[in-house]
Structure formats: structure tokens, C-alpha cells
Amino acid sequence: MTRHMKWWGWGDEAVSFDHHDKPALAPFVKQAIGIDLDAPPLPLIDLNALSIPRPSLPDHFADVLRAAVGPEHVHTTPLERIVHAYGKSLRDLVRVRSNDLGRIPDVVVYPASEAEVATVLSAALETDAVLIPFGGGTNIVGSLESAADEHRPVVSLDLARMDRVRSIDAASGLAVIAAGALGPDIETQLHAQGFTLGHFPDSFTHSTLGGWIATRSSGMQSDLYGDIAQITKAVRVVTPRGTLVTRSVPASSTGPSVREMVLGSEGRLGVITEATVQVHRLPAQRKILGYFFPDWDRGIAAMTAIAASDAAPSVTRVSDPNETGFSLATRKAGSAVDRVTSRLLRAYLQRAKRFDLSALCLSFIGFEGSPEHVKRQRSLVGSIVSAHGGVCVGSSPGTLYDQKKFDTPYIRDYLLDRGAFADVSETATTWSNLRPLYDAVTAAANTAFAEVGVHGYLMCHLAHSYHSGACLYFTFAFRPGDDGAPLTQYDTVKHAIQQAFIDAGGTLSHHHAVGREHAEWLADDLSAPGVEFIAALFEGVDPGRNLNPGAIIGSDRSPEVTPSPAPGT
Questions:
Q1: CA dist., res. 465 & res. 309, Å (int)
Q2: Tens digit of pLDDT for each residue in 310-361?
Q3: Which end of the chain is more exposed for a tag (fewer CB within 10 A), N or C?
Q4: Catalytic center residues
């Protein structure tokens, strides 16, 4: 049986965050955004109290779906429909928790093969239904929801049963994997044969290969392994025109890349059923070290220098002072030895290194490969870090980061339980523009906090380094004021940050995709002709707007179009 995340929040129901073993966190949050973590959580609405409409599902259509995948794999229960209605953005959770459900799916279908996917899609097109592919449900930009006024039947197509690593070409380092495979399942199956995909996004535990491809995902070790666009070598996609198949060759000069068109398509072109991906032998050694830099500028300068050097780390990440303060506040209460060690380190940084601890920036840098390679990489990086005033503080912080790297969304939900809004926005820009963009976003966010009358907190880290630039990943938090709708206040802050990305020369998203949340900035990012290209592609493949309509380019150009033909006709 498929296990889904909580309908009201992130992750497994048996897993939750708790601050009581982190003595510095409650005072930190109280000062940062005025939230008392010791206060009882807000009451959570019961699933049975939700205003869930009856499914709008024609009998003949339901019969075809049951015949296609088996009756036990077609669901119309309230829980299944709610789980598949939205992703896990702050907006999604606030709406679900407040019984503002909008247009939820009428039916959830679980195919087990590409042939079953094709049959379901054909039936949806013949019925003029909407079909939305569903991977793990981790999306945070509105890619999974239907338009509020959608009158056609809505099908959520969950690929969880398509979860196998089908083959590995060891000589070529290529694996064929079904699109519904979750991150942990992929790694377990690959590890059994001595390989790794090396793709570890924040959502890794609950997201799928197909979802990564559909949103152009990046993982924490993308510096070494590449993002999903680089990892994906070929795809199979069930479309209204038939099954699209690209070849897993190392390079090709065959016109515009159809594979690239599928990457980031968010279900608009069809259902990704399978991909051929680059895999690597498991490294003999893997180590993530912690470093401190005296300030943000020198941390950025060090990451810039590492990207331009011969060093090839797997992770390059540095947090600004605000995020460093938050990270240090989330540490668990240590032993007496830990506390003494911490005091000694602070004394060393202040007295010997002349660090201003209020400007301190925490960094994690990872190394993988043979022992000789790791040693060489550590030496190269160590020299660069030292040249920029940084100090290595050993493997303990890196080990803790490695263990807790997928837990951050649980903290967001814990804050939401107590009335605080916390969310993220990420962008990418060139090395020369990183600091100007960072300053512009900081100013825009602070102006927005003041506009809505709240005391907000903004923090950032640099990650996903490239030769020409890097990703800046911002997190913002505040307690909504009593006057005005909370989501309106949230929209003001989020909009200001996204607009600052565009105005300051960044992209609207580095790896979270477009969805509906970011669609309004697409023309600013790609130019108006770029959006027209995408709109023409979507209309050419899916003139009936049956495939996840509204994602990426908003409301599209016209709802009055002819339904798409069935696959193969």
C-alpha cells in the first residue's frame, strides 16, 4: 500500500520536530519573530470536518479507469483526494488547514505500467477530463492544483506503483528507472549493485524521479553530480500524440532538444513514465567538513574562488549571519565536553582570529572519491578557505548537517502549528552579481515586512555552485499581524522577494520550478517571445488543455479549444 505524507503537513505522521532538546532555539525564535515555542500548538481541523465535495466522475469514465488499472487502484475517498489536491507549500498547508479546499481531484488512479498510463490518458482525453501527474506531492509552487473554476473531471495520476530500477548498464554508467520511484528507493536499489544517482534534493525522502525531471530539480551534491537536467540522459513520456521516446546517447545534433522540452514541463506535455539516468560507482570515501568564515563577503569570495579552481567538491554551501545564527540555535544540548569545546572555539575565533561573532558565517563543503582524491580536494579547498580568512572546524558539524539535511520542512510545520509563517524562495545569478542581488532581496523583504506591519526574519545560504555563478536560497519567516488576511500578508512578502530576483538580474527559480506561484514572472525571465514559444508547444501537444492546465503559463491563452486526440490517433 502506498504511504503518503500527512495531509495537513510535511512528511511521515510518525515524525515531527521538537524544540525542547535545543535550548537555544526558543529564545532565538522569540527574538526573531515573536513566537513562543512553549505555547500549545493551534488546534488542527479534523479530516472529517473538511468540506469535501462529492466527486464529479461520470460512470462510464470511472468504469474505464477501473478496467485499465484494476478497481483496487482507483480511489475516490476523501483522504486520497485531499492528499492529492495540493503540494506542500505554505499556501497549500494554510488553505487545507483552514478548510479552503478549492477544486480537489475527483479521482486518484494508480497505474502500474506505461501501457496503463496510456490507457488512462486516452480515456481522459476522450472524456475531456483534466489529468495531473503526481509523484510524491512535495511540490511547493502550485504545480499540482486545479483551477478553482475547473468544471471537467479531474484525475490525479499517482505513479507510486512504478517504482523500480529496471536495468543498469555498468559499462556506460546508465540506469533505466521508472518515474514513480522515490529517492530512498532509488538509492537502495542502486546501492545493492554498487551505484548511486547522487541526487539529493531537500525533498529526497518523499519525491520521485519523475517529479525531479518535471520540475528541473537540483540536489545538495549537484556540484559534483550535476542537477537533474544533467543527470537525465533519455526519457519516455506518454503524450496525447503517442509515446515520446528519446535515445540514451552521450550527445546528439538532432535539432532542438526534445529531452530538454520535457525537463521542467510539469505535466503539461504528458506523463513521464521512465528515464535513463547517469549513475556513479559508490565513492570509497565521503566527508563533509564544517568551516567558519568571518563574514558573508569572504564566504562568497571563497566559494567563487573554489568554483574557479581545480577543486571539485560535492557540496559548497555557506550561510549568511542570520542563517548561521538560526543553525547554531538548532543544536541539541551537548555534554559538558561539548559545551567546553564550544566555548573554547568561540574564544579562539574571537581572540586569536579576531572574528566578530555576530557576522559569523557557517559553511559546509563536501568531498567524495578515493582517499587520495579526497585528500587532494581537501588540501585545495583548505588553502582557498584559509586565504579568505576561514577556519575548518572539523567533521562534526558536517556529520550533523548530513544527518539532518532533510528535516527542515518539519521545522516549518512546527512554526506553522504555532502561528508563524515560514517559506523559501531561491534564485541563481552570476558570481559578480551575487552580493548586489542579495542586498536587493534583503532590502525588498524588509520593506515588505514593514508594509504589512510585522517583525520578519530573512536568512540565506549560497549553494549549487557553477563556473559562472551560484544559487542563493532565501528563507523568510514572520508572525502574521492581526489586521488583514494572513495569506495577503504572505503574498506581499513573497512577491517582493520574487520581484527583487527579477529586478536584480536573477532567475525566478533555480530548482523549485514555475507552477502557478511563479507564472507571473515568466515573461520577465524568458522574454515575451520565450513564453509564446512555450505556449505554442503546449497548445500543439495538448490543444484541449487536458494536461495540468494552468501550470507554468498561468491561465494559458484561450480555454475555447478543441479537445486533444487520444494517443496514437
A1: 12
A2: 999 999 999 999 999 999 899 887 655 466 467 777 777 887 788 888 999 9
A3: N
A4: 473
